[in-house]
Amino acid sequence: MRSMARHVHSSTALTEPVASIRQYSGEHTAHAHDHAQVLYALHGRMELEVAGRAAFVDTACGMVVPAGVEHGFLAAPGAQLVVIDAPDVGSTGRTRRFSVPAPLRGKQPVLDADASDHLAALLDAPRVLARRDLDLQIVNLQVARSLHEDWNTRRMAALVHLSPQRFHVRWQELTGKTPQQWLRDLRLDAAETALARGESLENTALRWGYRSASALAFALRRDRNIGARDLRKG
């Protein structure tokens, strides 16, 4: 993590949690608060350095940072995080990593109405050991550039230096889809767009990784319940 300017944030002692959704564009800093913070990502990820130890949060893994603990962060451009400033009480008094409850992953909460309930759900979430880092953007960019090629799970895993098994688990945890489900949706999205522009079924199939026009037509019917002719008419 790059060196960071250090600041101490001081404010009136909190008696109730205050939740916000924060957008980031690549900024980096370090500071400490006189209140605890509980955070996880709605989109993207954030690198952290908490009490001198490297960590990160993403859509599946969040962190509790106790009051007074110096922490630095490096936000990935486009990152969007839920941050809850919380009173310094027993349950927020130690640094810990937690598994973001599945119903909250990637879903924007109504923070004004339920900051206390939201905080309680996160503090009650099971503790997890450090997760292996997985930068979704690296895989997204590489696969999207050559969708016509053979992208098995092993090849995708190699892009981020993970075993196929660990990659499969982390990818599903972060996206809610297996790697191959995600790849199938990406190809069908691209094929639908191409067909709607008037490209032939044969050219579209070869361009986006299908063995034949009939294979693409079958996939569209099976997964999208739509035919190629319907797309071209639209």
Give me a quick take on this structure:
The protein is 36% helix and 24% strand. With 234 residues, it is of the alpha+beta class.
Model description:
The chain has helices at residues 111-123, 136-145, 153-159, 164-175, 179-196, 201-207, 213-224, 228-233; strands spanning 6-9, 18-23, 28-33, 36-43, 46-50, 53-57, 61-65, 71-75, 80-86, 96-99. It has 234 residues and is of the alpha+beta class. It has 2 domains: 6-123, Jelly Rolls, CATH 2.60.120.10; 136-233, Arc Repressor Mutant, subunit A (Orthogonal Bundle), CATH 1.10.10.60. A hairpin with a 2-residue loop joins strand 5 (46-50) and strand 6 (53-57). The longest helix has 18 residues, at 179-196. The model is unreliable at 1-8 (pLDDT under 50).
Helix and strand arrangement:
Layout: E1 6-9, E2 18-23, E3 28-33, E4 36-43, E5 46-50, E6 53-57, E7 61-65, E8 71-75, E9 80-86, E10 96-99, H1 111-123, H2 136-145, H3 153-159, H4 164-175, H5 179-196, H6 201-207, H7 213-224, H8 228-233
Parallel strand pairs: 1-3
Antiparallel strand pairs: 2-9, 3-8, 4-7, 4-9, 5-6, 5-8, 7-10
